[in-house]
Each structure stands twice: as structure tokens, then as C-alpha cells.
Amino acid sequence: MKDTMIGVDLAKSVFVLHGASMRGQVKFRKKLSRSQFLTFMADQSPAIVVMESCGSANYWARQMMELGHTVRLIAPQYVRPFVKRQKNDAADAEAIVIAAQRPEMRFVEPKSELQQAKAVLFRARERLVHQRTELVNALRAVLYEYGHTIPQGIAHLKRIEALLDESNSDLPGLVREECRDLLAQICEKTARIEAKMKRIKVVAAETDATRRLQTMPGVGPITALAVEAFAPAMASFKRGRDFAAWLGRKSIPEGSWLARMLGRKPKMLVAIALANKMARAIWAMLTKKEDYRDPALATAA
Description:
Helix 5 crosses helix 9 (221-230) and helix 7 (173-204) packs across helix 9 (221-230). Strand 1 and strand 2 (14-21) form a beta hairpin. This protein has 12 helices and 5 strands. It has helices at residues 34-43, 57-66, 76-79, 89-100, 113-145, 157-165, 173-204, 208-213, 221-230, 257-262, 267-288, 295-300, and strands spanning 4-9, 14-21, 26-33, 48-52, 70-74. It is elongated. The chain has a 5-stranded mixed β-sheet with strand order 3-2-1-4-5. By secondary structure, the chain is of the alpha/beta class. 53% of the residues lie in helices and 11% in strands. It folds into 3 domains: 4-100, 2-Layer Sandwich (Nucleotidyltransferase, domain 5), CATH 3.30.420.40; 113-204; 208-300, no CATH class.
């Protein structure tokens, strides 16, 4: 049984450590460089190492586990209330240990290298989508200045192209040039988004978990990849209701549970109910390693 807990305040170059017994008695306080940190931790007996869940935490968690330590990650908001004095690196490291020793504390599961890689791919596509949206909005804003109101969404780009190509256009030549340049940038972003989407489909077909998730109506490669990349291990949840989901559905079958609920409840409540229902189904699918089973078909059988 490990008798030492080490709180680590991570930074780019200098790490601050606070070592304590499992009863909270201080054993050591250290300020180390990156290389010194690895050497120091390699010399320590197996301990419980606790860090705030930040940008580099998963990398260092894997490094610590390779050295034989047990790693626990804590969301930063759970550490702040335990900072006893003026906030600094040493106080943060101590607060991490104090927070981790609370019996009710919740921890974040360290991510594997593959999980992080999939998260990078997911965020790359999201970033491109946001950038394209900004370009589309910039284009709409320019046209609005000249009296042309264009609805939101890339579905209206053809309408903009036609507007720019009109022989009797009321837009100044310079404005049309800039609008065409924005259209070219949007086109380039779209091509990159499509390439990322193809890659996501390939990656989402590589594991049983993501393939299984896609058997559920409303869950495609993007959602499946997001669950695998960002969600904690399903084993960390006692039941489906503990797993909060952010999933949606493209269509509502007539006579379905969702359609009946929409008939008597506000849309927001229905959306929350649907998310909870799908979350429980996802938890069951991944913990039992089963594909999605349509309740209606199961009842009919």
C-alpha cells in the first residue's frame, strides 16, 4: 500500500512538488526542473502522484505510471478552494494534495496516447469549422454593408457567387474582389474539413467501441470519436444515468418515444431527456460490449 502522496504543480520548465503522508503530514517540498523532476520521481518509492488536469497532465501521467506510480488527476476548480494562503506554485502543490485526500473528491481518468491523438484530430476539424464560420460571417457582413441580406449557413454560398457574377451588380469592383477572395478561403477550409471528415470516418471504424457506438441512431463517426477521445472509461460510472451525454438526433420517427414527448413537453426538456436516454444506452453498449438494440424491435420480438 502506497504511504506517500505527491502533489505536482505542473509548468513549462519548473515543477513544484509537495510530498505528504496519507494522513497529511508534510514529508518534503521541492522545486525542480523538467529533467530533475523525472530523475527525482524515478528515485521515489511507488507513490500516489496527483496533478491538476491541464494541457500536459496526461503526458506526465503516463510518464509517472511508467515509473510505477499511481496517478490521479483533479479538475482545477476542485483544487482552488483548498489553497490556504496567497496563491503561488508551492501553495497550489499543497492544495492539490489536500484536495486529493478528501474522501468525496472526484478524479479525472488519465488519457492514453491514442486517446489524445484522437482528440487532436477531433479538435482539428472543429477548429476548421469555426474558422470557416468566421469567414462566412465576414462575407455576409461585407454584403450587408451594401444592402444585401444573406441568411446564415454555407448553404447560401451559391447565392453569393451568383450575386458577385451579376453583370449589373451594384457592388464596387474592389468589394467583389474581396468577396471572391473570402469565397476562395471558404472553399479551401471546406476541402480541409472534408479531408478531416474522411480521416475521422477511418479512425472511427478502427475500434470495436466506436464501431459499436455508430449502430445507435443519431450517432455518427464524429460523436463516436468524441466519446472515445474525451469521455472517461465507462467502468468509472456505476450506472448509465451517471454518464452525461451531449448527443443529438437528425430525425424523429413518428409515434416514437421522442415524438410523444415532444407533444407534451418543451423542446429543451425533451433535449435533456433524449441526451440522458442516449447516455444510458451508450454506457450499456460500451460496458456490456453490445451493439445498439432498437427498443421497439426488442419489444416486438
